[in-house]
Amino acid sequence: MEINFPFSTSRQNPSLMLPTPPTFTKMASMAFPVVQSSRNSTPIFSSNKEQTQNWNALKFVRGKKLLKDLSTWGIGGPCNYFVQVFHQTHLLSAIRYCREFSIPYVVIGKGSNCLFDDLGFDGCVILNQIDFLERMEPGVYRAGSGFRFNHLGSLSCNEGFTGLEFAAGIPGTVGGATYMNAGANGQETANVIESIDIVTTEGNFRTLNRIDLTFGYRSSSFQDMDNLAAIVAATFRLERSGSAKKRQQELLKRRRATQPVNERSAGSVFRNPVNLGVSAAELIDKAGLKGCGIGGAMVSNIHANFLVNNGASTSQDMLNLIAFVKDKVHGKFGVELEEEVLYFHPYWNYANWER
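and the corresponding structure tokens:
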């Protein structure tokens, strides 16, 4: 079936701009301005017949993939194009396809840190399934960016190496954990990174050593890298330890007792304030917000920094709840909470899409 390229810029709809949107951090591929949608908005695509486009051994699905199926929050409408990549050459081909036809794109993994809009996404979502694992030498692991981070954490501890005990409780990918510098319980991804392989928007592969990169609390050089298309793989160097497995089991036990592991969430929504000696969860709890809800979105009764989808949450419900929590915490404590989750809005300025 014929598919027309490129998209018209007339798809950008100023009527979608609503007041007081939360400010979100940029996503792994590029930065986008925030666009809000109304709860009753019609999805971008609603065709009843699946359309596909084959290109360089890749299958692009048109307008049928629901983003709620790619997110641990279970929220999101259809994307215009969807493709899965299983190798770095597939990833490069998908990016070249999008560049050739001026299609905006994002690369995602497990969707554990993402909020997709109910309107969907007027571009291409590339699902990263690059999930290989190589043991370079004892304690040195090179993993594809689509490899499950919690599996790497469990595997390395079972083999007697320390540094990724915390990873067993993070349901994301190696690429996502590296990009966000995921961490918990005094450990961070950056502490054990040796090198990172990336692909640029120009279609070049590069290897960056740890000395070339800067990491901070839930931040990395990749978040400000103008020409980053995607992380392809990461190499970790761990130290041998006889107690790593035991410590990991203790952390997992604590996690099951203190986090809503059986509910639909995106993990921690807000970053912990810097140099205040108090966590975001404590501030939200002390503001009396546990159990508060808007529509189908609710502040968890178990952990206040987890906002959960009770089964019927829209993206607007979650955006409104995030804004509500920020407003209440700021009003009570004078602290401006900053989001850790990434919001994928449906439209943006095509003229600046590579940035």
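(Above: one complete record from the training split.) The helical segments are 88-100, 149-158, 174-180, 244-258, 280-286, 315-333.
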